[in-house]
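[job 0417] fold request received: Acetyltransferase
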Amino acid sequence: MEAIVLTEKQKMLAGKAYQAGDAELSKERLKAREVVYEFNNLAPKFIKQRKELLKKLFGKTEKMFYVEPPFRCDYGYNIKIGDNFYANFNLVILDCAKVSIGNNVFIAPNVAIYTAGHPIHAHLRDQEYEWAQPVTIGNSVWIGGNVVINAGVKIGSNVVIGSGSVVTKDIPDNVLAFGNPCKVIRPITEEDKDYYYKNFKLGE
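[job 0417] inference complete; emitting structure tokens
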């Protein structure tokens, strides 16, 4: 039986080692950069036009989403966002693998989501070998400013990631987590909701 030869793109999407300098991948990154360049350089009033560009670039969008420019990504088609999504300035998503984001996710400025990794040993790294693992973010997640989310991480639903965190491992549902490396600090409870109603008199 003849062996199946995978393209570098197929290797990338399958989570196998691949060479990022491949012609097909380079062409796709350039195509994404052209769209991102147009997105980032539109005048602030062209909200609808920027939204349409991201609809074409991303693998999946819903009705309600907003991304503040500037924004950067590698390919775009590996990014899937849920409804009521908001990202502040300088979001970077290196989407060599799937990046799946749920509903009601809010991202503060200067957040980076990395699916790509590089060999520690220079012999392979110098040959432009990479690998990629997907990142998943659940529903109703708040990600603070200057957070880095590394390859292969899964963040649960109803989670707050504190600013400046470097997320290297999975984070479960319903927790506050922060630090470098990021770790669970405590559960999020009904007391947290009551705090805001009591101290900020919400709903009055």
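[job 0417] notes: Residues 105 and 158 are 9 Å apart (CA to CA). The first strand starts at residue 18 and ends at 19.
[job 0417] exit 0
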